[in-house]
Specification:
The protein has one domain (about 5-165): Toll/interleukin-1 receptor homology (TIR) domain (Rossmann fold). Helices cover about 55% and strands about 10% of the residues. The chain has helices at about 5-10, 15-25, 35-40, 45-55, 65-70, 70-85, 100-105, 115-120, 135-145, 155-165, and strands at about 60-65, 90-95, 125. Strands 1-2-3 form a three-stranded parallel sheet. α4 crosses α6. The longest helix is centred in the middle third of the chain and has 16 residues, at about 70-85. It is globular.
Length: about 170
């Protein structure tokens, strides 16, 4: 499936939290760390989150009312903002999955001040399910532009490197 192809974009009914990793990993060749999949349970969660963010080029947060009510998720976002303040090479992208994004900032209990400020100024994209195909295509194009640039190694490149000893 090509998310930039409007016909196939219309056909998909998957939620963004399922669709996004498929597109980024399987189609665009990015390597993702999904906490629920890639961080082992039982470890020092806060240390694992902070180290994972520090090793990353980009943190993407899919923001919804549920996300902002989850203290673990808010911790991830706050850690990402702090990492961004310490190292400007890290990118942080917010993807709002609800139409009422502005009202989500005014949570009860209130979000940490650093997170409230970040939600207002950080780059963000908007996604809502059931969009027309053109809007969906625009979302994927905008996401592609926001992603860090990288060159996906092709099998032939890896074979050339192994012959030269560069593995």
């Amino acid at each position: 499936m090509d998310p930039l192809n409007s016909e196939e974009g219309k056909a998909t009914q998957k939620p963004l939290q399922v669709l996004l990793p498929q597109v980024l990993e399987e189609q665009w060749g990015y390597r993702l760390c999904l906490l629920e999949r890639d961080v082992l349970p039982g470890g020092a969660y806060t240390n694992d989150v902070v180290l994972t963010i520090q090793r990353s080029k980009m943190l993407i947060c899919l923001l919804s009312a549920d996300y902002l009510c989850n203290s673990d998720a808010v911790f991830v976002l706050e850690s990402g903002v702090q990492a961004l303040l310490q190292n400007s090479a890290i990118k942080l992208l917010l993807i709002w999955t609800s139409r009422d994004s502005a009202s989500l900032i005014q949570q009860d209990p209130p979000l940490p001040t650093l997170v409230q400020r970040a939600l207002k100024v950080l780059p963000s994209l908007n996604w809502t399910s059931g969009k027309p195909a053109r809007a969906t295509c625009n979302f994927w194009r905008s996401l592609r532009k926001a992603m860090p640039h990288h060159r996906v190694k092709l099998v032939s490149d890896m074979q050339d490197q192994s012959l030269n000893g560069y593995i």
